[in-house]
Amino acid sequence: MPLLKFIFSIFVAVWFFVGVSGTTYAGSLLQDLENALMCKCDDKCGKVLVNCTCSTSDKTRAKFSKMLDSGLTVDQIIKSQVDEYGETVLSAPTKFGFNLTAWVMPFIALVAGGVGVRKVIYSWVGKKEKTATQNDEPEEKTATSEKYSKRLQDELDGIEL
Questions:
Q1: Domain boundaries in the chain?
Q2: 57, exposed or middle or buried, with CB in 10 Å at 0-12, 13-18, 19+?
Q3: Can you give the pLDDT at residue 27?
């Protein structure tokens, strides 16, 4: 009799863990699906399905749960949604074709901005160095600088204190 109880408890434990893991797996598949697709509600909220709380999203979740229970894979469900609504239903652009630019352009813009900032900084530093080297050399007064110096001196002499 104790052997029968032991076997029965093992059977119940195995049945429980298999049932829980299957439910957890289905839940993670549904969450993967919700993260991959946008909500298609009437007010066009523009949220990812996992973040949307409208009644349409609840209906869509129930529909996806039934589709997963019927044996369809996440990729098959996503493909059916893309066929029905177009690529706008995807939460992220595909990584091929023209949509590849959506993935690549931010990095290109970041590099181009860095190069631009580097050029500006080097031009500022270069101007400072030129000014410093010009000040270190003996100044040769030209005719225009002498003219302005004389005019400045005349103006200063004309000021009464």
A1: 1-92, 94-161
A2: buried
A3: 61
> What pLDDT shows up at residue 62?
86
Backbone angles phi, psi at 116, to 5 degrees: -65, -45
- H or E stretch covering 117: helix 100-136
Cβ–Cβ under 8 Å, residues 54 and 40: no
Residue with tokens 């549904």: 30
Q: Which residues contact 54 (CB under 8 A, 6 or more apart)?
A: 39, 41, 43, 45
Low-confidence residues in the chain, pLDDT < 50: 20-24, 137-138
- Could you give the CA distance from residue 155 to residue 153 in angstroms, rounded to a whole number? 5
* CA-closest candidate to residue 63, choices 46, 90, 40, 86: 40
- CA 102 → CA 57, 62, 125, distances in Å? 27, 32, 36
The sign one gets for the Cα dihedral 79, 64, 37, 89 is: positive
Residues 6+ apart with CB under 8 A from 48: 34, 35, 37, 38, 39, 91
Kindly report the CATH number that applies to the domain delimited by 1-92: 1.10.8
pTM greater than the 0.85 cutoff: no
- The token duo for 42 is 């009437």
